[in-house]
Amino acid sequence: MITFSYHGKDRTAEPYSLRRAGTGNLLLYAWEEEAGHVKAFKVPEISDLAVTETTFIPQYVIDLNAIVSTFRSGPRRRPSSSGQATSGPTYVFQCPYCHKLFRRSHSDPALRAHKRPRGFGECPGRHGVLLRTE
Length: 134
What we know:
There is one protein chain. By secondary structure, the chain is an all-beta fold. It has one domain (about 1-70, about 85-134). It is built from 1 helix and 8 strands, in the order E-E-E-E-E-H-E-E-E. The chain has one helix at about 65-70, and strands spanning about 1-5, 10-20, 25-30, 35-40, 45-50, 90-95, 100-105, 130-134. The strands form 2 sheets. The protein has a 5-stranded antiparallel beta sheet, with no helix packed on it. A 3-stranded antiparallel beta sheet has the order 7-6-8, with no helix packed on it. Mean pLDDT is about 80; it is low at about 70-80.
């Protein structure tokens, strides 16, 4: 587990993913203990970060090295005129609430509106956790 201060509040969390958002912000995705779900934290706004001696059993794949793969040296690829995406990795995200999988050609964790398992109402999950890259 880690502890840190963010926006004037002390937090305890399970770190899962380090990503650079499309906005350019470096984000830490972590399961915040108090909130009870995965949250994104802007890394430059985190202070007093410390690793605790408390261990946890990961709920998701931990991918803190993934930031290297999200840097782009050139312009972004556009889908071809046939509507097919260009070749490249597929990012598999999982909703932290209902565990539905979302496959993407880009590393954006934002999730579209979706239903809970077996269609029982709308799921509140709007930010996925990266499980793997295919």
